[in-house]
Amino acid sequence: MTSPDPVPFPIDHLTSRGAPDDVALIDRAGTMTFRDLETAVAALAGWLAGQGLAKGERVATWLPKTRVACVMPLAAARAGLLHVPVNPLLRRAQVAHILADSGAALLVTQGARAATLEPGDVPADCAIVDEAVLDLQREGGPGPSDADPATLAAILYTSGSTGRPKGVMLSHANLSLGAVSVAHYLKLTRDDRVLGVLPLSFDYGQNQLFSTWAAGAAVAPIDYMVARDVVKAVERVGATTLAGVPPLWVQLLEADWPAETAARLRRLTNSGGALTPRLVTGLRARFAGADIYAMYGLTEAFRSTYLDPALIDAHPDAMGRAIPFAQVSVIRPDGTRAAPGEPGELVHAGPLVAQGYWRDAERTAQRFRPAPDGNGMAVWSGDTVVEGADGLLRFVGRDDEMIKSAGNRISPLEVEEAVLAGNEAREAVAVGVADPRLGQAIVVMLAGDAADEPALRTRLRTALPSFMQPAGYLWRDALPRNANAKLDRSAIAAEVRAWSTANEQGRA
């Protein structure tokens, strides 16, 4: 397979990657061809240009996978604006943080969602627009942009182990080369139909639009409630490609799949957590004709590695090798390259590396540092990996306390802040514990009275999105502390995980 073209381009040029009459988007309303997609991007970009926004201002969308949500990333970029997609599962407090931190000048959402926001949640100079007033079929509007690929096009918010979500700054080049890279190594072709189940606020969820269009293929974004919805959608749109996270694969393997529907899928791609050998075996049995792509990535560099489907049976524990345009190395604490078999930090350099965190020089300096070879900037992932004699990378562990649940990266501190926003507990520490369906579930150790737990659960149902809801609470009169009188997070995590394991064994 020849290498893909490494020349970046403005991301809105994706409307011209497919044949004009080929289908680009499939949804409940029908289909959009690439010609229709260009019309919609031009129309929305023209409307944005008429709102009096200065170049580089931020436009946020808080939407399910509607046509406006799918078109806005290209339209905002064409209008010289930065798109800020907000996860539709987030509640008002998280949405308010993203709007304030990004300095959004415009929020495109739906009336029912806007009604949940309270005074002060939206910056005074941020206008709210209902997507229902936007006309994507209006003729006219600007043609493909001549933007410098190095200019910013989007800010994607991602959780860290400390503090609130931070905005990752992505350029046209980051987005367009990421699209070309994925389309290339997945071997997408014009006759593929990609079912988009991941949130568009996730880097890979958004890339499912971009990489599909880069290949001149059709994408079918869906919002689903249960696994059966995904099965029906595969049949309805004739999907050939499905991306998921480990908890979704667990659910899909438990669902009833007509043989002819399962046979439609040629390609399964996984991110957001490692595939277990058991999952690989299950997917092989259920989708015998599909190639399985295991992938690893981080929003700050989009995607770092993938494992060739031909290797997954023999090496189910491997992360694979660098994707096209990625420069990946394993580095010792002293900055030198680790030897094969020696653990080190995964460092990602090259043109997929983002431009840092929005308005956060301190955290940018911590994560984005000069590449080991001195050639440009790199993302120092904080993940410990090892490169085997076979050249394949394998994950060892993280050096922070990030919780990964149902494919979501969750900051313990963000959960703790929500827990402590009421009067039910004096102190709280959130810990991720192993869960067969979610990957990790959230358990919180609290100082306080267990009698207040029902009130806490009730309050958190409105304060946190569903994927951030704690699965369990462990109450204590006081939380363990270290010699410096600080909360002993290591001891707390060990106690929480032992408690969780004991509970699991008790239920078994």
UniProtKB/TrEMBL annotation:
Q: Which GO terms describe its molecular function?
A: ligase activity, forming carbon-sulfur bonds
KW Coiled coil (keyword) present: no
Could you tell me which SUPFAM superfamilies the record lists for this protein?
Answer: Acetyl-CoA synthetase-like
InterPro entries, A to Z: AcylCoA_ligase_PEP_1, AMP-bd_C, AMP-bd_C_sf, AMP-binding_CS, AMP-dep_synth/lig_dom, ANL_N_sf, ATP-dep_AMP-bd_enzyme
User: Which of UniProt's keywords are assigned here?
Assistant: Ligase
Q: Ranges for the AMP-dependent synthetase/ligase domain?
A: 17-358
Which intervals hold domain AMP-binding enzyme C-terminal? 414-486
What protein does this entry describe? Answer: Acyl-CoA ligase (AMP-forming) (Exosortase A-associated)
